[in-house]
Automatic annotation (TrEMBL):
Family annotation (Pfam families): Glyco_hydro_32C, Glyco_hydro_32N
Molecular function GO terms recorded: hydrolase activity, acting on glycosyl bonds
Family: Belongs to the glycosyl hydrolase 32 family.
Protein name per UniProt: Beta-fructofuranosidase
Keywords: Glycosidase, Hydrolase, Signal, Zymogen
Lineage: Eukaryota, Viridiplantae, Streptophyta, Embryophyta, Tracheophyta
């Protein structure tokens, strides 16, 4: 508390133009660019080269991502003082390419009773006339969650350094008449405009275990009225954090502004479930006349539903990139270590590489792919000619920096005869991947990559496929197995799994992994299943990190192509 006052005073003197000394003092308080960089990579083996992270301290949800006057903005939940959660402000960085980022002073920080105990997550909306507005959750002196509005101070400043809070704040408070639990009322979305000229937005909530997206409407973006019915809810899902709602097309990979409706437009509703630490989404029909949203048949509308990412990925949020006509997804990667360890290393949390996101042509799922811009970090390309990976073999991919790489591999199977039969009781892919880790031989698979691997294979993170037979069809299981990712005994080393909606007989079975010291982001089937792994190798660090392809099935598998690149370091904050 005291610290926060000191910091706020510093910033206020800066705002009032009291000179440069205060600026340096305040920057020294919350970010100290030299200190991390001078620490040798030996002492900080888990810092990344091209994932977004602040120089130090705690980070969680991405907030208010947007593009304004050609500049990408990322705000994020940040503790300016420690590597654990608390004192939350909106830290702020900007970029022209989503790869290299410059840090700015926090944009929104506790200053009024309505946000004095924290400035929590929220979203940006670009109002007509190219005017950004931020809606965010503030924590008031009674620790109630209220909603606030902030606008840029100077629209001519493309970096939008200074934000002014609305004199109408708080614009929404939880009331008992409205039957809203003041501790479950947060994370307003980007607003969209209905055909009646009124804005809509949703806020995450929970009533007796039923998670929901409360719907609000407004004519002027200041006065908001709760709709009688939530946009959507689902029983036993608990608190819906960071809901997201946006249009996608049934026939194009393009993205759309949140207000777009019309022929061929479907809607995606995503919730982050505080109770499970997982997210899920449905695709469905939104009717703006009566503000109903109905998930399409086949979507599971609870924590067992489809996820953007089956690994560590939470509090995510999309935005419409009007410069490239795409929808871009940001998501937070938390640590798997405890607070003592995080405090010792001085930082906690990263953002996943932003992903372009679109609806698969089947309409059955969302597809994701790292934004194209990240490819400009590729260097030292290595190509492997087509090669049979004999059952039980391992192949080192030499010539790339194993700790900092992008690898894209395409598998081909010629004989499906020996695929194991999928037991109908095996409905939980996570369990199936845990039970049958990378070392358990099957017919077709496990085959895939061992990344962040030590030379002697004592340590590795395995990303792999298994192919099962179901009557006359085949099913692909994708797994990420962390059980051997680190010699640290007591760190969390889970196994992740998902069935892929992919017919290996007719479609390409591809795997791309982005490797960055302590993060592995893997994309199966050109973006059909994504896994983020948070790992802490002890031997596979720096030059000790290697990359292998492997096949631990009995049957041969062909690598029809393999391309790998070392990745250059991005300029981040
Ligand atoms: C607004 O931003 C522009 C561009 O950075 C700058 O030139 C101008 O001085 C700013 N105006 C004020 C009032 O600060
Ligand atoms: C997309 O939706 C439009 C309008 O509902 C429909 O006519 C069209 O057939 C759909 N296209 C695909 C590929 O499903
Ligand atoms: C909303 O409107 C749609 C289309 O007119 C209709 O099918 C649906 O039943 C309506 N829902 C409610 C709850 O009124
Ligand atoms: C955190 O983990 C470390 C190493 O595994 C252990 O020594 C320490 O006791 C743990 N701290 C807490 C607070 O659990
Ligand atoms: C492949 O199987 C062998 C024998 O079970 C095991 O030693 C090795 O670790 C496995 N490879 C992977 C990647 O798990
Ligand atoms: C796997 O490939 C090797 C080398 O091409 C070949 O000798 C072997 O017979 C193949 N095994 C099977 C089961 O097809």
């Amino acid at each position: 508390m005291a610290k926060s006052c000191v910091w706020v005073i510093c910033l206020f003197s800066l705002l009032l133009g009291h000179g440069v000394l205060e600026l340096e003092a305040s920057q020294h308080e919350y970010r100290n660019p030299q200190s991390m960089q001078s620490q040798s990579s030996k002492r900080q083996p888990y810092r990344t080269a091209y994932h977004f992270q602040p120089p130090q301290n705690w980070m969680n949800d991405p907030n208010g991502p947007m593009i304004y006057k050609g500049i990408y903005h990322l705000f994020y939940q940040y503790n300016p003082y420690e590597a654990v959660w608390g004192n939350i402000v909106w830290a702020h960085s900007t970029s022209t390419d989503l790869v290299n980022w410059a840090a700015h002073p926090p944009a929104i920080y506790p200053s009024h009773p309505y946000d004095i105990n924290g400035c929590w997550s929220g979203s940006a909306t670009i109002l007509p006339g190219e005017k950004p507005a931020i809606l965010y959750t503030g924590i008031n002196p009674q620790n109630r969650q209220v909603q606030n509005l902030a606008m840029p101070k100077n629209l001519s400043d493309p970096f939008l350094i200074e934000w002014v809070k609305s004199p109408y704040n708080p614009i929404l408070i939880p009331t008992f008449e409205n039957n809203i639990d003041p501790s479950s009322f947060r994370d307003p979305t980007t607003a969209w405009l209905g055909p009646d000229g009124r804005w809509r937005m949703i806020i995450g909530s929970n009533r007796n275990g039923r998670g929901m997206a409360l719907l609000y409407r407004s004519k002027d973006f200041i006065h908001w009225k709760k709709a009688q019915h939530p946009l959507h809810s689902s029983k036993d899902t608990g608190m819906w954090e960071c809901p997201d709602f946006y249009p996608v097309s049934n026939s194009s990979k393009n993205g759309f502004d949140s207000s777009v409706i019309g022929s061929g437009i479907r809607h995606v509703l995503k919730a982050s479930l505080g109770g499970t630490g997982h997210e899920y989404y449905t695709v469905g029909t939104y009717n703006p006349e009566n503000d109903t949203y109905v998930p399409d048949k086949g979507f599971v509308d609870d924590s067992r539903g489809l996820r953007y990412d089956y690994g560590k990925f939470y509090g995510s949020k999309t935005f419409f990139d009007s410069a490239k006509n795409r929808r871009v997804l940001w998501g937070w990667i938390s640590e798997s270590t405890n607070a003592t360890i995080d405090l010792t290393k001085g930082w906690s949390g990263l953002q996943a590489i932003p992903r372009k996101l679109w609806l698969d042509k089947s309409g059955k799922q969302i597809m994701q792919w790292p934004v194209k811009e990240i490819e400009k970090l590729r260097t030292n390309q290595v190509n492997l000619p087509s090669k049979v990976l004999i059952g039980g073999s391992v192949l080192e991919v030499a010539g790339v920096t194993g700790s900092q790489a992008d690898v894209d591999i395409l598998f081909e199977i010629s004989d499906y005869e020996k695929a194991d039969v999928l037991d109908p009781s095996w409905t939980n892919p996570q369990e199936l991947c845990s039970r049958n880790g990378a070392s358990v031989k099957g017919g077709l698979g496990p085959f895939g990559l061992m990344v962040l691997a030590s030379k002697d294979l004592q340590e590795y993170t395995a990303v792999f496929f298994r192919i099962f037979k179901v009557q006359t069809n085949y099913v692909v299981l994708m797994c990420t197995d962390l059980s051997r990712s680190s010699l640290h005994l007591d760190y969390d080393k889970p196994t992740y799994g998902a069935f892929m909606d992919l017919d290996p007989v007719r479609e390409k079975l591809s795997l791309r992994s982005l490797i960055d010291h302590s993060i592995v982001e893997s994309f199966g089937g050109e973006g059909k299943a994504c896994f983020t792994a948070r790992v802490y190798p002890t031997m596979a660090i720096g030059d000790g990190a290697h990359l292998f392809a492997f096949n631990n099935g009995t049957e041969n598998v062909t690598i029809s192509s393999l391309t790998a690149w070392s990745m250059k370091k991005a300029q981040i904050n």
